[in-house]
Fold this sequence. Notes:
Layout: H1 2-6, E1 15-22, E2 25-32, H2 33-45, H3 50-65, H4 71-86, H5 88-92
Antiparallel strand pairs: 1-2
Helix pairs in contact: 2-3, 2-4
Amino acid sequence: MCQIFARQDPVGYTPVTRRLRLNGQSTSIRLERLFWDILDDIARSEGLSTPAFVSKLHSEVLIAAGEAANFTSLLRCTCIIELRRRQPIAFAAE
């Protein structure tokens, strides 16, 4: 089983930093390429650019929680939730 994970393409876990604006403030977010790919897919499905989607998510988190503590972790979890939403049977079996 570990071979599935151990032999993955390193390009997927290469960190990528993107600069964008969150609520009008310029910032940088560093995530692994695979997470950016998933965020790009989510944004596209919402009819938004990735920066617009991430900014919208950030705003909604501020409204819901009052703060966006560890926002990069929230983005990673967003990706996992999206993958579970796409493939509920595969994740339910685990």
